[in-house]
Amino acid sequence: MSLRPRVLAILGATAxxxxxxxxxxxxxxxxxxxxxxxxxxxxxxxxxTAAPSAEDQASxxxxxxxxxxxxxxxxxxxxxxxCREWVAGIxxxxxxxxxxxxxxxxxxxxxxxxxxxPDLDAVxxxxxxxxxxxxxxxxxxxxAVRLDPDLRSRLSVIDRQRAGRALELALLTxxxxxxxxxxxxxxxxPVRARIWVLEMDSGVLRRRIEDRAERLLDAGWMEEVEAxxxxxxxxxxxxxxxxxxxxxxRLASGEISRETAVAAIVRDSWRYARRQRTWxxxxxxxxxxxxxxxxDVAALGARIVADWRGxxxxxxxxxxxxxxxxxxxxx
Length: 331
Hints:
- The structure is a single chain.
- This protein is α/β, with parallel strands linked by helices.
- The chain has 14 helices and six strands.
- It has helices at 18-29, 54-59, 76-92, 104-111, 122-133, 137-147, 151-154, 160-173, 177-183, 202-218, 221-230, 245-252, 258-282, 297-316, and strands at residues 7-12, 31-35, 62-63, 96-101, 193-199, 289-292.
- The protein has a six-stranded parallel sheet, with helices on both faces.
- Helix 5 (122-133) packs across helix 8 (160-173) and helix 6 (137-147) crosses helix 8.
- The chain starts with 6 loop residues before the first strand and ends in a 15-residue tail after the last helix.
């Protein structure tokens, strides 16, 4: 079996420029982009999640962007199942699959497959979902951590969706999420990936987050949130738990000022970026390539492309072994 990577992944914290770099690489390699972003998957959230523009998607084929309804649940397992199909389709067209995003658990689920889904009693599951849907997030999170104490150290974010998932498994199977992830049978073979991580100075990244919050509001974020609420997607909808959406709704409702909304969005985005950076620094292994996100996009793209083509040549040469295929990224 070939050891060369099937997928090229460009990861990084929010606002580090992943989309622009993925576009650059896709154009050079005749690739197609798969979004590894848990929130860009929802329709109607294109502005607030800084999803690829219509022009970008017309220029380079994209997968995993705005393909779900805002009320649907979307976790790492579902992403990995869809992603394997997208990868196979891209390969069948003779093109390069390029993952781009900041949800590290999505990439891990692809390269280190999650456990096979256990059967859950549909009636009991529905009752449990109804119970925690009416509870404050902190209460749901508190119960999830009580049933699975390792959650806090393993997950950078314990949002309502992840907390609910932890509760379901613990209460309906008698085994918590951590147990299933450690001992459950993998649902598929791992997909080998060459991973690159965009890194940026903290001060520069903070300023970019601030600028982006203002820019997204100017681009119609408030109108986007109003449309979601009008369509029946309230504050507890999976999509509306995305960073900034509740703050923008409060702004649209006149509860807070724009200044207050921006401050809250920046605060939460920065906290999330810090968690992403920590995860990407410690969970990928030494074989992941590291890039200075402040460098020219064309130069970074050229470096990634040269590396990818080098891997291809190594794999085609008799007995060739690429130095980039060691460690977790190529498992």
